[in-house]
Amino acid sequence: MLLFRSEEHVKSWYQKQGVPTGAILTLEQPWELARLWYTDRMSPDWRRRTPTEAQAVFASLGLTGEFWRLTAAAG
Amino acid sequence: MESEQVIDTAVRLEVYRFFVDQGRPPIPAEVAHAVGMDQASVEESHRRLAEGHVLVLAPGTPYVWMANPLSAIPTPFPVEVGGRTWFGNCIWDALGVVAMLGGTGTVTTWCPDCEERLSVSVEDNRLSSGEGVAHFAVPAAHWWDDIGFN
């Protein structure tokens, strides 16, 4: 999960690598994802999210569709 | 005898506490000393936490490579919070370090395409400056197939 200067730079880089691009997010989306995902990581009560819970976090940020579908817990 | 869940929680909390405090993860002996357990039990706990995708161990060892969002090795995602620096595993994790450590900090990285330096700052849990777009190469269901790559 990398940060690029712009969408054009994403396309340019992956074209040079010869592999297809994945999902491109605005800067706000990974920040909100980070905030929702990691704020409580050092809490005694933290537990790993279930796939359903993780999917709900993605959906709350507009991250839906096949790319974001979980078959097992992630993160 | 304490349950594995109680042990794993104590070990997890100590790994993160030490990592944030010292800027590197603890070795099992240091965790054992801190939580009052023997080293073998800590190593077993590390393995359970790794199987549960809570920690990532350096291959073939009981040593912590990642305690997400933190990386034990330098990466292209240094994070500055309060005058100190840690490393995230990716842009999501680097921003996660900021979130985990209070919501104010700066991530610096480099565009892989043009190698231009990019920085993203967060203040009081709001993006305050930065440019760029994030790219996720691997679909979510496969993130843990090769977490080091991802």
A few lines on this structure:
Chain A has 75 residues and is mainly alpha-helical. Chain A has three helices and two strands.
How would you describe this structure to a colleague?
The complex is a heterodimer of chains A (75) and B (150). Chain A is mostly helical. Chain A has a domain at 25-75. Chain A has helices at residues 7-17, 28-38, 51-60; strands spanning 2-4, 23-25. By secondary structure, chain B is α+β, with helices and mostly antiparallel strands. Chain B folds into two domains: 4-67, Arc Repressor Mutant, subunit A (Orthogonal Bundle), CATH 1.10.10.10; 72-140, Bactericidal permeability-increasing protein, domain 1 (Super Roll). In chain B, the strands form two sheets. In chain B, strands 5-4-6-7-8 form a five-stranded antiparallel sheet, with helices on one face. A three-stranded antiparallel sheet of chain B has the order 1-2-3. In chain B, strand 1 (56-57) and strand 2 (64-67) form a beta hairpin. The N and C termini of chain B lie far apart (38 Å). The mean pLDDT of chain B is 95. Classes of the chains: A mainly alpha (75), B alpha+beta (150).
The poorly predicted ranges of chain A are: none
Helix content of chain B: 25-40%
| Whole-number total of structural domains of chain B | 2
How far the N terminus sits from the C terminus of chain A, by CA atoms, comes to: 12 Å
Classified by CATH, the class of the largest domain in chain B is: Alpha Beta
Helix content of chain A: 40-55%
What is the topological layout?
The complex is a heterodimer of chains A (75) and B (150).
Chain A: E1 2-4, H1 7-17, E2 23-25, H2 28-38, H3 51-60
Chain B: H1 4-22, H2 28-35, H3 39-51, E1 56-57, E2 64-67, E3 70-71, E4 78-81, E5 84-87, H4 91-100, E6 105-110, E7 117-123, E8 126-130, E9 133-136
Antiparallel strand pairs in B: 1-2, 2-3, 4-5, 4-6, 6-7, 7-8
Helix pairs in contact in B: 1-2, 1-3, 2-3
Spell out the key features of this protein:
heterodimer, A: mainly alpha, B: 150 residues, Bactericidal permeability-increasing protein, domain 1, three-stranded antiparallel sheet, 9 strands, 33% helix
